[in-house]
């Protein structure tokens, strides 16, 4: 191919894909096969296409008919679950350090009103939300933005 042919194929939908993106789509496809959403033959065919893909739009086509583009299946992998647990543990550690600092400041201030109540409530509410909702992990662990719905 010469430079003029390359220019004809360039554009936002013709970005080259990386090995990690191919592996991510392969993980989605394996999870879909495990859930029974794809037959073994269709899953193997899509896996072969994923590993042979050169451009990102070729990968996107492989997962568009799966619920949520396959992202929910990706979050059910053991790697994503352990990464989410690590994130919640890290968050909890920060919350407890801040809580003890606030309580120490309140004790040293000698204030009669328990003023750390509101910041403590907000800190623990954020921690509860992080631990409770899996969608927090969608953006942090293992979901490529190029595979998001509506993204070109």
Automatic annotation (TrEMBL):
Pfam families: DUF1707. InterPro entries: DUF1707_SHOCT-like (IPR012551). Residues 15-67 form the DUF1707 domain. Residues 1-21 are annotated as: Disordered. Signal peptide: none annotated. Keywords: Membrane, Transmembrane, Transmembrane helix. The keyword Transmembrane applies. The chain crosses the membrane at residues 91-108, 114-131. This is Uncharacterized protein DUF1707. It comes from Krasilnikovia cinnamomea.
